[in-house]
Every structure is written in C-alpha cells, then in structure tokens.
Design brief:
Blueprint (H helix, E strand, L loop, with lengths): L7 H8 L7 E2 L34 H4 L6 E2 L16 E9 L9 E9 L9 E6 L7 H7 L6 H6 E6 L25 H22 L8 H14 L5 E6 L1 H12 L4 E7 L8 H25 L8 H14 L5 E2 L5 E2 L1 H12 L5 H12 L4 H13 L15 H10 L6 H14 L4 H6 L2 H4 L21 E7 L5 H11 L3 E8 L9 H13 L6 E4 L2
Parallel strand pairs: 5-6, 5-7, 7-8, 8-11, 11-12, 12-13
Antiparallel strand pairs: 1-13, 2-3, 3-4, 4-6, 9-10
Helix pairs in contact: 5-14, 6-7, 8-9, 10-11, 10-12, 11-12
Length: 530
C-alpha cells in the first residue's frame, strides 16, 4: 500500500523538504579577462596507494572490495521500467554505529556504469542525487541520471543508496495516520503531533538501532568506505542538492581524501530547520513568480499579468482546505497537496507547461493532474518492491535524516507561530512549508547534529554550481558555502531551476567538465546564460 498522499505531515514532509557563452566576473558582462583558472591534480595521479578509512573499523570492512555482478530488476527502482545493460551492482558493508564499528553492520547498495573509454579512464565519479532519500544506485542503474558524454567516457559513474533508502538496509516505518488538512488551530496541531509521535515511535521499534544512525555524518563515513572499496586514493564526487551537504561533511571529516568535488544546488549547513524552512518559503515564492512571468510571456490562460496569476492561484489553493476537491483513488486535493503539486514542477522550467495544464484542470474541477504532480516524488523516492514491505512508508528516510541533522521546533505553539510567520510571507506556500516541520517536532530521537558552518582546512578547491533562482537551494546558500570553504569557485546558471549540471546548459557543462576532466577550475564568479 502506498503512502496516503492526502496526509499533510506525510506528503509535505516527505518531499518538502544535477565554455562558450559563459559570463565571468560576478555578473558584470564585458569585463576584462579574469585571473587564470586554478587546477587540481588528476585522479590518476593520486590513486596510489589507497588511503584507508578510520582506524577501529574491522579489517573485513575497512579493506573490502566490491563484488560486481549484473544488476537485477529491483535495482532500477520504482520510477524506471528497465535497467541499463551496461550497469553493474554490488553490496558495500558498513557499520551501523561508527562509535562502535565492530558492532552490527548493514549493507549499502552500489551501482556503476563503467567508463566508455577505458584506456583513458580517470577513475570513479561517485554520485549522490539528493533527497535525503533518493536512491543513487537506482538512478545510475536505470540511466535516470547520466553525466555529460565527455565525463561518462572518462569516469565510471557510481551511485549508492544511502543507509535506509532504496535497496540498502531499509527503515521499517509504517504508514502515518495524520489529517489531510493544514493544522492551523491548536487542537489540529496537537492532533498532528500526536499522530506523528505515534508513527515515529512505531518506526523506532520496528527499525531498531539503525534509526539513530541515519544522520549525514554517518552517510559521509559510509562514503569514505565506498571510496576505499573502489580502490580510489581520493574521492571524485558529484553531489546534488542534499548531496552537497554530504560532500561538505565528507570534506570536513576527510580533507585529505577529497579529490575533485562538484556541489550542485548547494545546501547551507549553518541553518537550522526554521531558517531552512524560511528560506524555502522565499525561494518557492521567487520561483513561482518566475513561472508566472513566463506564463504571461507565453499567453497562458491563468492570467494577464504575473501578479494576477499569483493572486488567482493563491486564492484557489487556500480555498481547498474549506472545500477540498475529490480526486482519483479517493484522494482529496487540499491546500497542502495543491501547494506540493505546484512545487514539484518548479524545479525544471521545461515542466512548467505541465503545471499550467494541471492548474487549469484543477480550477475547472479536475484535480487529477495536480494530485499526480504532488505525489510523484512519493512514488519514486525509495518505494520498495518487496511484498513483505508493502506497508512501509517510503518517505520516512528523509525525515529520519533531517530530524537527526538539525534542531527545530518541538511544540505546537512554536509550530503555529512559525506557520503564521511563513503564511504572512507567502500565502501560497508558507503554511505547507511549516506543516512539513511537524514530523521532526514529534520525532522519537533528539537531533545529534548542529546548524553550523562546515569548513575543510587542507581540502583542495571545489566547484560549486547553482541556478540564479532555485526553488529548493537558493543562490545565497552557494555564496555562504563558498565563504565557508574559502577556496571554491562558483558557476551560476541564469534562470530558474534546481541542479544546473547535465540539464541543457553548454556553458555550465563545459565548466564542470573542465574541472572533472582536467582539474581546471573556472574563474571564481562565472555566469552562464539561461
């Protein structure tokens, strides 16, 4: 049974929560040529001997090698129907608790597509596509993500399903039973917290010790075991969205193991849950405004001006809590579900026509398409194929990570205060972003991480990539992280979207390829046209 998509706390917390024409120099077109680009050593030059993981890890884990074999049908994941014929899969063994590395261990699923030009192979490029909760092994095995052709020629592309996700050791979290309306009153908020607490406690009992070790620091340590098992002295890494957060933790923990790191759609580690949510409200509002301007330019039927489109959409969405629209499979289109349906296609401008059609249909009393947009991430994010796990909530891995990583509100009163603030800032998105914080407020385990800048003294320079307007990870994040790291270069792709590399921008792709293939960093502030 899939997650009940109408549940606000379930559906919203699950998903609310990758060089011709380049313009260098912080946005000043026509400036003098910038300083010469920096370079980093090639992966091949740093491959021997392999560096071993932290001491204390049992020898059979610290020195393991991956036993590659043909992937099976389940490795494609629920979003894909076929496997790449050239994909291989393997299992990586990691400790559950790195404070007791000789204790219990779990398996992490890994997939690879080997370099097209093996004679000129540079090494392994390890991908994390984001989330938390995205199954990287499945995205590689199915071909759902591919690097650009020049990079695929020179690197083995390697993806992994982080602990608790995809085919790796799963969480055993039952489906939630919260309400499907935004909890705007004290009584509704208390009821949502009670339902979330019950689900979290059932998840803790069913999953066991793994739930307490779903934090990003543990994932970063798993990543170093993967580097060693791949026989790489230094890790070459592409982190997208949440994957940039893993990369920053990795660089702090293992600066001497950092190779060429590309962080695309950058997460700011210095924000707690409240500040992150507040930034989400602003980013989503800016992105929807960009969509509305484009809609007017293409003479869409939602309105004659961007302001009219924003106003009309907001009025429609807010009306749905009082008058939900019945949809397919008994699902009701509520305020929360509609806002999530709008959010999903904002990540990719090429999907904006889908959003326009879905909104027009919903306003005409046919909500099926907008409901489909809202729940598509639930259908693809870690959904499991084992019939014994059919009642497992596939979205809880995200909550397990986020609730451990950073502190946030813990009471109904504070949550309602944040909801009021966010709702005032964005009547379209504010309340639904606040509603996504309820699960962590009732989570059975206290946060183990902190909101703090992450630095990596001794690590080589990295490449940061961002859209100018990003609905999930605003450009300000990239500027903050570049300041934290001190030596990173930043490529900004104009326009609106999320994850700019390998998505149609020749300028952005050439900047990333220059770094991954030759170690050449672009000038510190490089702008690429939309």
């Amino acid at each position: 049974m899939r997650e009940r998509p109408g549940t606000v706390v379930a559906a919203l917390a699950a998903v609310a929560l990758v060089a011709t024409g380049c313009d260098a120099g912080g946005g000043d077109r026509g400036r003098a040529a910038p300083p010469a680009a920096r370079t980093s050593a090639s992966p091949a030059a740093t491959r021997q001997p392999p560096q071993r993981p932290l001491p204390g890890i049992p020898e059979d884990i610290a020195h393991q090698r991956l036993a590659w074999e043909a992937c099976d049908a389940d490795d494609a994941g629920p979003a894909a129907s076929t496997l790449r014929p050239d994909a291989d899969c393997a299992w990586l063994t990691v400790p559950v608790d790195y404070a007791e590395p000789a204790g219990s261990a779990i398996r992490v699923r890994v997939a690879r597509v080997r370099a097209g030009d093996r004679a000129r192979r540079l090494g392994s490029l390890v991908l994390n596509p984001g989330g938390p909760g995205e199954a990287g092994a499945g995205m590689v095995a199915s071909g759902a993500f591919e690097a650009t052709a020049r990079v695929m020629d020179r690197y083995d592309l390697v993806g992994f399903d982080p602990r608790g996700t995809g085919r790796s050791q799963p969480l055993r979290c039952p489906q939630g039973a919260g309400g499907d309306l935004i909890p705007r009153t004290r009584a509704m908020a208390e009821a949502e917290l009670h339902a979330a607490a019950e689900q979290g406690e059932k998840c803790r009992r069913a999953t066991g010790p793994l739930l307490a070790h779903m934090d990003t620091v543990s994932v970063a340590r798993d990543l170093d075991l993967l580097r060693s098992a791949l026989d790489e002295r230094a890790l070459t890494y592409l982190g997208i969205s949440y994957g940039t957060y893993i990369g920053q933790h990795y660089a702090r923990l293992f600066p001497g193991h950092v190779g060429r790191f590309v962080l695309d759609g950058v997460v700011d580690p210095g924000t707690d849950q409240t500040r992150t949510a507040r930034g989400d409200v602003t980013s989503l509002s800016d992105s929807f405004a960009s969509y509305a301007r484009a809609c007017v330019e293409h003479r869409c039927a939602l309105g004659r001006t961007p302001e009219e489109i924003v106003s009309t959409t907001t009025e429609f969405v807010r009306s749905l809590d009082d008058h939900p629209l019945p949809g397919p499979d008994g699902i009701r289109l509520t305020t929360g579900l509609a806002a999530q349906g709008i959010r999903e296609p904002l990540y990719q401008a090429e999907r904006w026509p889908d959003l326009t059609r879905a909104l027009l249909d919903a306003m005409g009393g046919r909500p099926g398409a907008l409901i489909g947009l809202a729940v598509e991430r639930v259908r693809t994010q870690g959904a499991r194929t084992d019939p014994d796990e059919s009642d497992v909530d596939p979205t809880m891995a995200r909550n397990a990570v986020e609730c451990l990583d950073k502190p946030g509100p813990r009471t109904a009163a504070e949550l309602l205060t944040r909801m009021g603030e966010f709702d005032k800032a964005s009547p379209l998105f504010g309340a639904t972003v606040a509603a996504a914080m309820f699960r962590c407020a009732a989570w059975p385990l206290a946060p183990t991480g902190r909101a703090e800048p992450l630095t990596a003294p001794g690590a080589p320079p990295m490449l940061l990539v961002s859209y100018a307007v990003d609905p999930a990870t605003p450009l300000t994040n990239a500027h903050t992280v570049r300041k934290n790291l001190g030596t990173a270069s930043l490529v900004v792709r104009e326009g609106t979207g999320h994850a700019a590399y390998a998505s149609g921008s020749e300028c952005t792709d050439r900047a990333v390829e220059g770094f991954l293939l030759a170690g050449t960093l672009p000038p510190p502030d490089t702008r690429c046209p939309a």
